[in-house]
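Need a sequence for this fold. Nothing fancy.
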């Protein structure tokens, strides 16, 4: 069976492209080879071949973490925390 290739066109920052090309050139690669390698790794791992996460915690995740830690530190003792006012009351009174 003959391999049929397909072109991909993407928009990237011109400075990022230049820097990436310099790195790839130093490795003896070009952009097309790198993209093909990245796609093969995506298929091989059935996902991204690197971790994807937010670079810094935002206010929501920081507050959520602080609330979860506060709840863990205090004994719930059958206290019903179903709403934000219940949670605030629990934190303030325990």
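Here you go.
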């Amino acid at each position: 069976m003959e391999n049929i290739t397909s072109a991909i066109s993407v928009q990237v920052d011109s400075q990022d492209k230049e820097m990436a090309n310099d790195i790839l050139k130093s490795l003896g690669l070009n952009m097309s080879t790198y993209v093909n390698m990245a796609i093969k790794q995506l298929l091989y791992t059935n996902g991204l071949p690197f971790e994807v996460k937010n670079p810094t915690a935002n206010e929501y995740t920081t507050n959520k973490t602080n609330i979860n830690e506060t709840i863990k530190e205090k004994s719930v003792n059958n206290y019903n925390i179903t709403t934000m006012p219940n949670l605030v009351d629990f934190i303030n009174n325990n």
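For context: The two ends are 71 Å apart (CA to CA).
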